[in-house]
Amino acid sequence: MTLLFPVIWCAVVMTTRQAPLTLVPPAAAHGEQPTTAIGASALESLDTYRLLDHRTRDSLLAIATAPAGRYLGFEHLGQTLLLALTRPITHIGRGLIADVRFEDPRVSRRHAIVALRGRSVRVLDDRSANGTFVNGTRITVAELSDGDVVRFGPAAAQYVEVAPVSGDVRRWRPNGSRPAPRASWPGVRGRGPSAD
After folding, report:
1. Which phi and psi (to 5°) does residue 172 adopt?
2. What is the layout of strands, in order, in the sheet containing 137-139?
3. Which of 119, 128, 145, 193 sits at a 20 to 30 Å CA gap from 172?
4. What is the DSSP letter of 40?
């Protein structure tokens, strides 16, 4: 019995003398770079359009052709290009799952969220390294109004509300919502909560 104990002890010693394990951070394993700190000199005017990935660039509209709705506007070559905010939650960042994706290491993978609820629009900082700013003030949560400038690290966008054209028979509804089905309108008989 005393003979087994040294053998087990030797096996433990041998395994502890192996080469140390090198842990690879998850971001590096997928080829992503960590978020780079932003210096004061880097906040000068940038062409934010060039920071957008190709998928986001392809979905931009010219302001003259945009239907009524809510948008993030990006300046490029003297014109404003709009990105429609059609989802209740829009993720902004550098990560591959972001709805609005920037290809700049100063933008966090999960930088900010734009939330549409009813007639209000909010921007929330998603614990980003370089912060989210509305009209120059760092925020964690802020209500957006037409014309507000939002900065995600070095990238800037303007919140734009395009009103319906006068004479347009379609009514603009936030989030593309539709009116309630006719059967549930008050005073209308049929299936629904107001049915007799």
Report:
1. -80, 130
2. 61-62, 79-84, 69-76, 155-162, 149-152, 132-134, 137-139
3. 193
4. G
Name the DSSP letter for residue 148: -
Cβ within 8 Å of residue 85, ≥6 positions away: 69, 70, 71, 72, 114, 116, 121
Q: Which two tokens stand for residue 94?
A: 């550098």
Cβ within 8 Å of residue 98, ≥6 positions away: 91, 92, 109, 110, 111
67 neighbors 113 (Cβ within 8 angstroms) = no
| pTM, full prediction | 0.65
Q: How confident is the model at residue 36 (pLDDT cuts 50, 70, 90)?
A: low
| The two three-digit tokens of residue 138, written as one number | 């760092």
How far the first Cα of the chain sits from its last, in Å, is 88
Contact 94, 108 (CB under 8 A): yes
Q: Say which residue the tokens 């550098």 belong to.
A: 94
pLDDT score of 165: 74
Distance CA 121, CA 134 (A): 13
78: exposed, middle or buried (Cβ count in 10 Å: 0-12, 13-18, 19+): exposed
Which residue shows structure tokens 């009514």? 171
